[in-house]
Amino acid sequence: MYLFADSGSTKTHWVITDFEYNILTEFKTIGLNPYFTSEQKLLATLTEAFPQKLDPLKIEKLYFYGSGCSIEENYYHFRQAFLDFFFNAEINIFSDMLGAARASLKTDEGICAILGTGVNSCFYNGQAIKQNAISLGYILGDEGSGAYIGKLFAKFYLEKRLDPELSDKFYLETGENKASILNAVYKNPNPNKYLANFCHFIYKNIEHKQLTELVEFSFNKFFKNYIVIFNDYENKKLSLTGSLANAFKDILIKTAENFETQKPIFIDNPIYGIIEYHRITNE
Question: Which CATH number does the domain housing residue 212 bear?
Fold first, then answer.
């Protein structure tokens, strides 16, 4: 059997297949990032979640795609945990960026981007990443990400630049005020995730002109910083993945038209595309 995993910041989607890549079962766990997850925590998660009816010693290959897995030194303890749990398996660990590219573009070359709480993009040659955009995180960069859009929205709200009706609606739904927002951003952990959560309200009210323009402005910044930086971008396939990309698909399509790129490819769940890539290539 083969085991595939696609791990984001909040959850990991696991799929077990037979040797012909037919799906046998699926399960989900918490997000597993080597920067924040210890070897012991990973082993405990696998012990609790791995299907009891299946024997982990019968897993012959593991393909783990995850955030924080672009540099081998960072995920060495993950490899050790996987070897302990899947004693007979060949362990393959890749970045979530490569997973998104393989899932959406398969063996074609093109540009791939992930838009979620953060943002990243790359040029992919049909097998591997050949060029990455410079990603500076939510404080200095991440234009077009959930955290970036949420930061702009919070700024408009606190500076009383939002339409009063929209501002009142946001307060009634969330109870957020200047004190709660500044405390969450400057004192609490994970302010980027906190800010990105404002995108739920924005999505529900996207027909409001002010919110539409805010998201359009953010995606224009995203294209300038993460898409048009690649040579001959107009003629390359373009795939956009991640929760934010799927939520604001219509605005991204219009933005792509303005920048004269190819029409974006969107995928809801990368894991199935990843499995298809390995079926095609038999890697």
Answer: 1.10.720.160
Provide the 3-class DSSP secondary structure of residue 168. Answer: helix
Query: What global pTM score does this model have?
Result: 0.89
Contacts of 171 (CB under 8 A, 6+ apart): 177
> Which domain does 187 fall in, by range?
139-216
If one counts the domains in the chain, the total is 2
Is 111 part of any domain?
Answer: no
For the segment 118-166, what is each residue's pLDDT rounded down to a tens digit?
Answer: 899 999 999 999 999 988 777 887 899 999 999 999 999 999 999 999 9
Q: Which long-range contacts (C-beta less than 8 Å, at least 24 apart) are formed by 45-53? A: 46/81, 46/85, 47/85, 49/14, 50/85, 51/16, 51/25, 51/27
pLDDT digits (tens, 9 = 90+) for 84-114: 999 999 999 999 999 999 999 999 999 999 9
Instruction: Find the distance separating the first CA and the last CA of the chain, reported in whole Å.
Output: 14
Give, as one character, the DSSP assignment of residue 125: -
